[in-house]
C-alpha cells in the first residue's frame, strides 16, 4: 500500500490532473532552507507554518482519484520503538523460559534422587513424626531432672505399650465378629439375589449362576496374577514393619539428641545465616507439631461421635471403627471419607438399609461440624491450607507413594508453605528471623562447642 500526502502531484497518472511540480535541485536556495524537526511520534507529523496537519491517505482512501481496490488500513501506524520493544520482550521471554526449564530439570533430578533414597528417607520422616508426639512428655521429664537417654527410653516404651494395648483390645473383637459379619454378608448376598430375581430386573437363578461361574472362572484364570499380588503385598507389609522399627529407633535418637541439632546446623552455616537457619527450623518444627496436634484432636472428636452413634444403633466393631476413624483423620478429607464409608458398609451388612442410612447421616453431620466449625477454629492457631490444596496434595501423594504418600502429603505441603512464606517475608524485608519479643537467634561459643542465644534487634 502506498501513502501520499495531499497536495503532492508528482504521482498523479497521465490525464488525471495538473502536471507534477518541478523538483528543486539539491544545491538551490530552496533546498537549503530551514527544515522542520524530525517527528518521532506514532501519529501524523505536526502542522508547520500554521497549516493544518496533513492527512495520510492510501489507495482507495480520501482524495484518491482512482477506483478503490481496498479500504485504507485502520490499524495505527507503527511507532519507532516497536521493533526494539518486541526484541526486548522476546529476549525476556527467552530468559524466563530458560530459567523455567532449568528449574524443572532441577526438580526432576531432586525427585529422582529422593526416589532412589526413599528407603532411607521414609524412616527418617516417620521418625520425625513420632518425635513430634513423643517430645512433649520427654521434655517434661528432662525439665524434672531425668537424664536425656532415660527420659527418651521411658517415653518410647510407654508409647509402644499404649499401641500394643490398643491392638490387644481391638484384635479379639475383630476375630470374634468377623465370622458373624461374614455370615451376615452371605445372607445379604442371598437377599440381593432374590431382589434381582424380582421386578424390574427379572433375572432368573440360572442367569445369576452363569454370572457367578464366570466370576469364578475369571478368578481361576488370574490365579497366578493374584498370587503375585499377594506376594507383593506380603513384601510391602514386611517392608512397612521394618520401616516402622527403624522409625521408632530414629525417634528415640531424635528426642534424646534433638536439641543439639539446630545449634550444630546453625554453627555450620555461619553467623549471617544462623538466625535464618534457627528461625526456619523452629517454624518447621512448630508447624509439624501443630499439624499432629490438630489432626489428633480432630480425629478424637470424629472417633468419639461416630463411635457413640455406632454404639447406640448396635453396630458391631465399634472400637475398631472408632480407631480407624481416628487414624483416618491424619489424611484430611480423604481419610474421613474412607473411614465413614467402612462404618456405613458394616452397618448395612449387620443392621440393614435403614440403620446404614442413619449412620451415613451421623458421619456426614460429624464431618460437616469438623470441616465448618472445628477445623477453622483449630487451624487459626497453626498453618492454614486451602481445601483445594489439601485435596491436590493428598491426590499427588497417594499417586506417588500410595497410602504412605497420602499420609505424608499434607505435612509436606504445610512445610513447603512455611518455607515459601518465610522466603517471601525475607524478600520483602520483614525480618521473619526476629521473634515477637524483638530478639533473634545468634551462635556463640568457642572451640569446645557452640550454643544458641537470643540477642535484641535485627541481626547485623
TrEMBL record:
<feature type="compositionally biased region" description="Low complexity">
    <location>
        <begin position="19"/>
        <end position="54"/>
    </location>
</feature>
<feature type="transmembrane region" description="Helical">
    <location>
        <begin position="352"/>
        <end position="369"/>
    </location>
</feature>
<dbReference type="GO" id="GO:0055085">
    <property type="term" value="P:transmembrane transport"/>
</dbReference>
<keyword id="KW-0812">Transmembrane</keyword>
<feature type="region of interest" description="Disordered">
    <location>
        <begin position="1"/>
        <end position="83"/>
    </location>
</feature>
<feature type="transmembrane region" description="Helical">
    <location>
        <begin position="226"/>
        <end position="255"/>
    </location>
</feature>
<keyword id="KW-0472">Membrane</keyword>
<keyword id="KW-0813">Transport</keyword>
<dbReference type="GO" id="GO:0005886">
    <property type="term" value="C:plasma membrane"/>
</dbReference>
<feature type="transmembrane region" description="Helical">
    <location>
        <begin position="319"/>
        <end position="345"/>
    </location>
</feature>
<keyword id="KW-1133">Transmembrane helix</keyword>
<feature type="transmembrane region" description="Helical">
    <location>
        <begin position="92"/>
        <end position="114"/>
    </location>
</feature>
<protein>
    <submittedName>
        <fullName>Predicted PurR-regulated permease PerM</fullName>
    </submittedName>
</protein>
<dbReference type="InterPro" id="IPR002549">
    <property type="entry name" value="AI-2E-like"/>
</dbReference>
<comment type="similarity">
    <text>Belongs to the autoinducer-2 exporter (AI-2E) (TC 2.A.86) family.</text>
</comment>
<feature type="transmembrane region" description="Helical">
    <location>
        <begin position="389"/>
        <end position="420"/>
    </location>
</feature>
<feature type="transmembrane region" description="Helical">
    <location>
        <begin position="296"/>
        <end position="313"/>
    </location>
</feature>
<feature type="transmembrane region" description="Helical">
    <location>
        <begin position="120"/>
        <end position="137"/>
    </location>
</feature>
<keyword id="KW-1003">Cell membrane</keyword>
<dbReference type="Pfam" id="PF01594">
    <property type="entry name" value="AI-2E_transport"/>
</dbReference>
<feature type="transmembrane region" description="Helical">
    <location>
        <begin position="149"/>
        <end position="171"/>
    </location>
</feature>
Amino acid at each position: 500500500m502506498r501513502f501520499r500526502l495531499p497536495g503532492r502531484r508528482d504521482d498523479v497518472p497521465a490525464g488525471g490532473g495538473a502536471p507534477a511540480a518541478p523538483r528543486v535541485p539539491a544545491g538551490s536556495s530552496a533546498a537549503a532552507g530551514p527544515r522542520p524537526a524530525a517527528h518521532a511520534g506514532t501519529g501524523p507529523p505536526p502542522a508547520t507554518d500554521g497549516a493544518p496537519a496533513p492527512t495520510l491517505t492510501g489507495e482507495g482512501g480520501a482524495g484518491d482519484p482512482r477506483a478503490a481496490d481496498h479500504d485504507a488500513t485502520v490499524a495505527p501506524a507503527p511507532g519507532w520503538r516497536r521493533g526494539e520493544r518486541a526484541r526486548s520482550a522476546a529476549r525476556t521471554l527467552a530468559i524466563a523460559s530458560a530459567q523455567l526449564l532449568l528449574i524443572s530439570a532441577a526438580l526432576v533430578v531432586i525427585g529422582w534422587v529422593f526416589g532412589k533414597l526413599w528407603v532411607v528417607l521414609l524412616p527418617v520422616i516417620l521418625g520425625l513424626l513420632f518425635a513430634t508426639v513423643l517430645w512433649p512428655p520427654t521434655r517434661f521429664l528432662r525439665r524434672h531432672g531425668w537424664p536425656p537417654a532415660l527420659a527418651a527410653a521411658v517415653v518410647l516404651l510407654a508409647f509402644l505399650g499404649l499401641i500394643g494395648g490398643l491392638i490387644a483390645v481391638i484384635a479379639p473383637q475383630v476375630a470374634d465378629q468377623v465370622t458373624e459379619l461374614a455370615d451376615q454378608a452371605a445372607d445379604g448376598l442371598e437377599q440381593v439375589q432374590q431382589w434381582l430375581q424380582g421386578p424390574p430386573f427379572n433375572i432368573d437363578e440360572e442367569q445369576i449362576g452363569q454370572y457367578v461361574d464366570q466370576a469364578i472362572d475369571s478368578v481361576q484364570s488370574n490365579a497366578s496374577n493374584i498370587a503375585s499380588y499377594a506376594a507383593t503385598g506380603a513384601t510391602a507389609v514386611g517392608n512397612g514393619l521394618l520401616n516402622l522399627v527403624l522409625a521408632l529407633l530414629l525417634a528415640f535418637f531424635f528426642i534424646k539428641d534433638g536439641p543439639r541439632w539446630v545449634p550444630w546446623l546453625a554453627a555450620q552455616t555461619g553467623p549471617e545465616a544462623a538466625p535464618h537457619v534457627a528461625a526456619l527450623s523452629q517454624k518447621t518444627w512448630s508447624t509439624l507439631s501443630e499439624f499432629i496436634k490438630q489432626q489428633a484432636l480432630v480425629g478424637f472428636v470424629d472417633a468419639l461421635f461416630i463411635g457413640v452413634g455406632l454404639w447406640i444403633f448396635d453396630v458391631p466393631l465399634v472400637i475398631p471403627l472408632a480407631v480407624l476413624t481416628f487414624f483416618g483423620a491424619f489424611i484430611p478429607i480423604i481419610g474421613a471419607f474412607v473411614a465413614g464409608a467402612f462404618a456405613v458398609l458394616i452397618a448395612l451388612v449387620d443392621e440393614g438399609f435403614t440403620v446404614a442410612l442413619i449412620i451415613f447421616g451421623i458421619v456426614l453431620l460429624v464431618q460437616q461440624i469438623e470441616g465448618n466449625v472445628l477445623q477453622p477454629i483449630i487451624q487459626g492457631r497453626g498453618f492454614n491450607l486451602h481445601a483445594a490444596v489439601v485435596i491436590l496434595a493428598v491426590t499427588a501423594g497417594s499417586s506417588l507413594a500410595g497410602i504412605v504418600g497420602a499420609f505424608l502429603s499434607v505435612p509436606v505441603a504445610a512445610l513447603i508453605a512455611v518455607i515459601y512464606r518465610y522466603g517471601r517475608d525475607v524478600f520483602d524485608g520483614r525480618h521473619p528471623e526476629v521473634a515477637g519479643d524483638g530478639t533473634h537467634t545468634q551462635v556463640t561459643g568457642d572451640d569446645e562447642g557452640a550454643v544458641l542465644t537470643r540477642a535484641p534487634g535485627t541481626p547485623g
